[in-house]
Amino acid sequence: MNQVIIRQGSAVVEQIPAPEIREGTVLVQVDHSCISIGTEISGLQTSGVPLWKRAVQQPDKVRKLMQIAAAQGLSHTRNMLKVKTGSGQPSGYSAAGTVIEVGAGITDLKAGDRVACAGAQFAHHAEIIRVPRNLVTPVPEGLEMAEASTVTLGAIAMQGLRRAAPTLGETFVVIGLGILGQLTAQLLKANGCRVIGTDLDKDRIALAQRLGMDLAIWPGEDSSAQAALRLTDGLGADGVIITAAAKSSTILAEAFRMTRKKGRVVVVGDVGLEINRSDIYEKELDFYISTSYGPGRYDRNYEEKGQDYPLGYVRWTENRNMREYLRLVAEGKIRLEPMISRVFPVSEAAEAYAYIQHAEAKPMMVLLSYPQTAVISGDRHKVTINPQLSARVGMERKMRIGLIGAGEFAKAMHLPNINALSGMFQLQAVMSQTGHNAAETAKQFGAVYAATSYRLLLEDPEVEAVLIATRHDTHASIVLEALEAGKHVFVEKPLALTRTELEDIEKFYADLPDGKSAPVLVTGFNRRFSPYAAKIKEITERRSNPMILNYRMNAGYLPLDHWTQTEEGGGRNRGECCHIYDLFTYLTGSRVQRIHVSHIDPATKHYTHTDNFVATMEFGDGSVATVTYTALGSKSYPKEQMDIYVDGKNIFLDDYRRLLIAGSKAKGLETKISSKGQRETLERFGEAVQGRTEWPIPLWQQIQASEIALEVERSLTKGMMNP
Fold first, then answer.
1. Closest of 205, 202, 261, 264 to residue 234, by C-alpha
2. Of 320, 3, 331, 319, residue with least CA distance to 132
3. In whole angstroms, what is the distance from residue 471 CA to residue 461 CA?
4. Distance between CA 527 and CA 582 in Å, rounded?
5. What's the pLDDT band for 53 if we cut at 50, 70, 90?
6. CB–CB of 131/8 below 8 Å?
7. Where do runs of H (alpha helix) occur along 136-232?
8. What is the pTM of this model?
9. Whole-angstrom Cα distance, residue 505 to residue 476?
10. Which of 160, 307, 357, 721 could bridge across to 290 with cysteines, CB 3.0–4.6 Å?
């Protein structure tokens, strides 16, 4: 399908795979979409700014990059920058079209329904979009799709009104008569208010008056505040709504001066927010910020997980604002036709963006239209990126690997490692839930094709192995499907989040018929493959006594609503600390016998006991290992340190950058950057798949690390274990 992508200062139309339906979402074939002249053009221009100029403008980000480079090296930092700066970005956040499929859990919409959609994460300029239910609203009968495609702008304007709380007969000033200002003025009139508007562009003032605005403050008057007082009998306006965009705070100061005592000022646009106390103190003014479409915006539970707010407590959510706006347009209380400057076919998107930037008269609103075909031809979930690679790869003895889940970590770590091991691997496919990310990543890293369905990779006979880097709650199910499809599997940790998932994977291997070769399974427990762990293993291999191992993970704070803390991530114990349980298993080479867990009860809800705990493990060889995992510490302190006591030796590991050894002639180790074994893990996986070595991690050890994590989790959530 076609989608508009912003890349290096230009808008281009590219072929990307269409999204796949998911629970709680709707697939929509787009009829029209609305270009946001302010937000999108700003993003377009920013994408064309050279990196060095952006660095000058954002010194905080430069400092952060320098810290990453110091910790992880220039190569890793270059990979990050290449991914971020080289990728095109989707554009658009307001569209209307026809439902072609609904996901599980949606009962009030069906295929064939006409709907309007919102959301910068979802309602892109694309032929097919996938949108969560709370960002979709039905289009009233008789309303044209072109008009319905403005739904997001309408909801933004309406939320500004909600914040201002106008009442019948009040007088309001609207500063800035672009599209949001024009809609705001009409909404105020529909609410029974007297409306005064002002803008630097006289044509926009004239348009607003034709559409019902009562009075105007014309540019060039000595003082807008004085003009407002003159037009309100010296009292001042009951309220001012700012829909303009300017870096200066002058507009805000003017708004305060226009307002009567105990009036209110609402900022919808993007203006400077430096406030002079005297401007608001004597009048005791109310000052409000309006956040986009309304309550629910930026709340992932509402927007993506479908958790609505009860109407009795939150009368106007972003979805209800969207619906009400469309009703007003359908009833003729808001007129859009005079504000639609031009409609371009999506194939001419580049011309549309050029028109917006260079038209002699500033356009008010520009739309894109889309071809209405009954069926999108071909396999819409897959797009070939490098067709010439298929034939060539067939003649080479490389393992063809497919990536499932193209998130930031996969793009910054796994894909560069696959490229670095190009003598062993050929990237066959990249799968991501979002088509533009799949296509962009496939282009950057030289994959044959991009897809939005991982099952296409499992069905592809050319794909010999898959690397799974999706959200944690999907790992086990995809692993099992891949194994059943005969694919070798490298899965990022964790392997599983529940005992049932773990048992299903064990059962797969237990039930393999005699003589059938088992596909290789490797969980991304990379610390065991670091040069530091290898050195420690070498030193302790011939020990005569058990060891004591103390591991400290200064994990740093993560907000409790971060995805790793939710059901998607499974929490930090199962999602991250499993690395350490595997390292203990590797170093002892032994079965765990007992586990004891203690945790703190934080005095504030800023922290949780599930990411502040101490777990002690006793192993069959007599070794005792303790991990202290905490979010309480400073991120400026090393993240991971380990002390080992064995046979008169002390071994100290400092953040995978330094290894100190006392009581032995063995030499320590030091590297300039943290070396945690990610590339080595992938290389060992490849060697095992090629039959050159045994499995890098025996299955029982992968299972044990996961079982320890599950037992620690049980203790953290349900009480201590008493063996």
1. 261
2. 319
3. 25
4. 8
5. low
6. no
7. 145-148, 151-164, 179-190, 202-210, 224-231
8. 0.89
9. 8
10. 160
CB 668 within 8 A of CB 658: yes
The one-letter amino acid code at 109 reads L
- Per residue in 393-406, pLDDT tens? 444 578 999 999 99
Q: What is the pLDDT of residues 71-98, one digit of tens each?
A: 666 666 666 666 666 678 899 999 999 9
pLDDT surpasses 80 at 222: no
Interacting residues of 489 by C-beta distance below 8 A, sequence separation 6+: 465, 466, 468, 479, 482, 483, 519, 520, 521, 522
- 8: pLDDT confidence band, cut at 50, 70 and 90? confident
Q: Quote the tokens at residue 608.
A: 């949780």
Residue that has been written with the tokens 């340190």 in this structure: 641
String of b and e for 462-477 (b: at least 16 CB within 10 Å)?
A: ebbbbbbbbbbbebbe
CA distances from 369 to 84, 132, 150, 345 (A): 30, 22, 13, 5
| Helical residues (DSSP H) of 453-577, grouped into ranges | 454-459, 475-484, 499-510, 531-540, 571-572
Mean pLDDT, residues 529-538 taken together: 97
| C-alpha torsion sign, points 105, 502, 568, 80 | negative
Closest to 24 in 3D by CA, of 307, 405, 321? 307
At which residue do the structure tokens 């709707």 appear?
26
CB 326 within 8 A of CB 151: yes
The whole-angstrom separation of Cα 565 and Cα 558 is: 8
When pLDDT is averaged across residues 331-346 and rounded to a whole number, the result is 96
Helix (H) or strand (E) holding 598: strand 592-599
List the strands of the sheet with 2-7, edge to edge: 10-15, 2-7, 89-90
Residue for token pair 């619906």: 323
Peptide bond into 138 cis (omega under 30): no
Predicted pLDDT at 255: 96
CA pseudo-torsion sign 227, 230, 236, 240: negative
Give the angle subtended at the CA of 29 by the CAs of 28 and 33, to the nearest 5°: 95
Q: How far apart are CA 572 and CA 716, in angstroms?
A: 12
Average pLDDT, the chain: 92
The enclosing H or E element of 74 equals helix 74-86
Q: Which of 110, 133, 224, 117 is nearest to 176 (CA)?
A: 224
Q: Which of these, 106, 210, 120, 57, lies nearest to 436 by C-alpha position? A: 120
Of 210, 183, 185, give the one whose Cα is nearest residue 94: 183
Residue whose C-alpha is closest to residue 521's, from 690, 346, 685:
685
Cα separation, 528 vs 306, whole angstroms: 41
Question: Comparing 35-39, 328-332, 658-662, which segment has the lowest mean pLDDT?
Answer: 35-39
Are 26 and 101 in contact, with CB atoms under 8 Å apart?
yes
